[in-house]
């Protein structure tokens, strides 16, 4: 336990010395929300959205974006880099097992994603008057599943990629479609019916719908929660199956 704690502390110090990563992980999602909120039409109530504003739709989306950045964009290159540079192999000969290092990185990126999500919710409320999630238990369940799915995706990407360069490419290939299915480009709620149904069977699309329903005061649809959970289980299994220490 003490060795794992020491690894976590050391990795935390290294993590805090990466301003570029911290900006994209913590600052970028909220910055995007602020930019969108400055568009006058996004702050106007719309009958087509059930009396809500576009900015109201985007807070859950930006929360999900924070988790996607943490899990898919930031985490895989770190895991792949440690393996490619032989750090995990060398650690296997010491009392500190490689799993402690991987666990620390997963925990740090998960914490960064959740901190970014909380910041986005706070800015949405204080700056643009977006209501806080009305169904808190449902929101927390959806958030936990979304975070697990995003981190599992990143771990699976690192597992199947032989080196850091490939990890970056594969991560980008997964990242941008995930932004679309999460609703960053166009909110899922306004997509054509057929396309929306397809998107809702992706991890980001299902999580986006679950977070939106909880934000409006409803318990998330069990289909959306189930799809997100199923993707998380499958991706965790893939990461465990194919990850190599060296």
Automatic annotation (TrEMBL):
Domain ABC transmembrane type-2, chain residue ranges per copy: 20-246
Chief location: membrane
Keywords: Antibiotic resistance, Cell membrane, Membrane, Transmembrane, Transmembrane helix, Transport
Subcellular location: Cell membrane; Membrane
Keyword ATP-binding: no
The keyword Cell membrane is annotated on this UniProt entry: yes
Membrane topology: Multi-pass membrane protein
Transmembrane segments: 21-42, 57-80, 101-127, 139-159, 166-186, 222-243
Pfam families, per database record: ABC2_membrane_3
Family: Belongs to the ABC-2 integral membrane protein family.
Name recorded for this polypeptide: Transport permease protein
Originating species: Actinomadura rugatobispora
């Amino acid at each position: 336990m003490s060795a794992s704690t020491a690894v976590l502390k050391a990795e935390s110090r290294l993590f805090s010395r990466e301003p570029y990563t911290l900006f994209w992980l913590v600052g970028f999602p909220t910055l995007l929300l602020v930019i969108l909120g400055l568009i006058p039409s996004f702050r106007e109530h719309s009958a087509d959205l059930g009396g809500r504003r576009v900015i109201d739709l985007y807070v859950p989306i930006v929360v999900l974006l924070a988790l996607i950045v943490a899990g898919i964009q930031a985490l895989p290159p770190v895991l792949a880099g440690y393996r490619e540079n032989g750090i995990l192999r060398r650690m296997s000969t010491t009392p500190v097992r490689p799993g402690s290092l991987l666990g620390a990185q997963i925990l740090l990126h998960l914490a960064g994603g959740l901190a970014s999500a909380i910041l986005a919710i706070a800015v949405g409320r204080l700056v643009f008057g977006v209501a806080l999630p009305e169904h808190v238990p449902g929101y927390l369940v959806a958030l936990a599943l979304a975070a697990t799915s995003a981190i599992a995706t990143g771990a699976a990407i690192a597992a199947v990629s032989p080196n850091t360069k490939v990890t970056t490419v594969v991560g980008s290939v997964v990242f941008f479609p995930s932004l679309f299915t999460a609703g960053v480009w166009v909110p899922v709620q306004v997509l054509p019916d057929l396309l929306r149904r397809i998107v809702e069977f992706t991890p980001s699309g299902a999580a986006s719908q679950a977070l939106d329903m909880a934000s409006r005061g409803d318990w998330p649809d069990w289909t959306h929660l189930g799809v997100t959970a199923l993707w998380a289980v499958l991706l965790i299994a893939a990461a465990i199956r194919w990850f190599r220490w060296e």
